Amino acid sequence: MSATDTTPGDADARPPAPLTDAEERRRHREEARMIRTREANLRKDGASKDGQWAAGDKTPLNPNEEFKSTSDPLEVRHRIETMYSKWGFWSIPPTDLRGRFRWWGLYTQRRPGIDGGKTAVLEPHQLDDEYFMLRVRSDGGQLTVAQCREIGAISQEFGRDTADVSDRQNIQLHWIRVEDVPEIFRRIEAVGLFTTEACGDSPRVILGSALAGVAKDELIDPTPQIRAIIERGIGSPEFSNLPRKFKTAISGMPIPDIAHEVQDIALVAVEHPELGVGYDLWVGGGLSINPHLGVRLGAFVEPAKVPEVWAGVIGIFRDHGYRRLRTRARLKFLVKAWGGEKFRKVLEEDYLGYALPDGPGPQIGTPGHRGDHVGIHEQRDGNYYIGAAPIAGRVSGTKLIQIADLTEAAGSDRIRLTPLQKVVILDVPEAKVNDVVNGLRALELEAEPKEFHRNVMACTGIEYCKLAIVETKATARELVQHLDTVFPTIDAPISVHVNGCPNSCARVQTADIGFKGQLVLDEESGEQVPGFQVHLGGRLGRGEDNDFGRKIRGHKVTANGMPEYVERVTKNYLRDRDQDEQFSDWAFRADEELIK
User: Fold this and answer.
1) Among 139, 278, 279, 463, which is most exposed with the fewest C-beta within 10 angstroms?
2) Could you give the percent of the chain with pLDDT greater than 70?
3) Which CATH architecture has domain 212-352?
4) Could you tell me which residue, 244 or 554, shows the higher pLDDT?
5) What is the DSSP string of 29-77?
């Protein structure tokens, strides 16, 4: 058995030897040569240049499509449990290590000490550490006390007490060894959680309102639809080989709270004048280097039909999505090429076999509407929910256990995570509210935070991510500490999102002030240093006024200069704004000198 061709077998067999650097480089060169030859042959034969299965082209056109075609990526779990966990990190072949492992929520971590200038220069094996990030699915952001406590215990025992709340409403752990993965899987699944397709070219964790089932103004609890989608498609070979990742979001709130405009598929609650409460269907949203707002199809989806409509949309992506180039393999490119009218027609005629009724669109948020659910709010049953803000989603295993303890002590069993990296405890009796608020404050989780503490988000960054160029979590913390001191009583929310690379995991294009990590020229030293491209005035939830942030050509900010920059722009906004003018509106009309 070679290091590049591992199949299920005897766990007691001799493990393969690790590849040397020279062997790894040769493997990459040979792989690239084979792909170029294959593409040339396809062009010569007149085959589809986009690799669409529906066009009859199932020939793999890049290394990712190659390894997916040889076996279902979900099958790698057997090898993890019977071979790699026994043989160790260096027994894992590249296509499993940096490919199929993702279908079980595992990404290799960035090796410490590698600066951002090496991110796009070094080979993958040179960036890899011998540890993994593990993403635990919590669809709808829903956790029980037992689940939260178990994740915290796993973090303490196996992950050096690390834990981050992501903007996909799940928890990410770090420093995971492959030797420990089978036991972690066992313990996660024993409390009703799983990591299946938390990463990879697959249907990712489903976003849902953190207030599902408790909000006073909720139109419908989407939890049954989320569970039906999980049962219908998560872990199924029918959808385990997609062109790239597929992001789903469902909200039962009258004003959506799931960033529905930037999801591959979003279903947002509306009330049809004849058919009652159901969902309005959106497709093709996404960010990264080529951001695209989702397209509203104008179709009304009854709750019982949600799983089959979801299967139809993801089926279109699987069959018609572009597989040749990874940079064009998201659903947004297909939707942009087809338009909403054609997409709906194909969905109805080829995948559903019936027409969806037309329906109304969702409500638009009023100025100042946040949707982060931070604070103390009464539920429909008279109890309270308490939303608290960790700084940029950073918590720990210890804190997760303490959150579970606080929740249990209040008589509740329901904890929620939000798409804005917040933590919400449901079902708190009025008499216990102060106990929970004070307990959370002791954990640096503020239910009554200052504005910049409340409104900052950050991705994983260079601390662990192999794609990152700059640090994010620590940078966000320093930013919050500075700005909340300078503006302790600011009367306008300003969201700041910090991302370590151009992929926009922290949704920089939708923030009031978004920072996209890159190396920039320091004017004083003349050297390349960590810094950011700036996006200003991004906004969602505004209907036709939705927009991505404004960029100024050539304008960059160093990481060290970020706090001073945000302070300066904020002061300019406060001096120059019209009465009650939101930052996003001001940023688009302000003169360049005020935002540089």
Assistant:
1) 463
2) 92
3) 2-Layer Sandwich (3.30)
4) 244
5) HHHHHHHHHHHHHHHHHT--TT--GGGT--S--SHHHHHHHHS-GGGHH
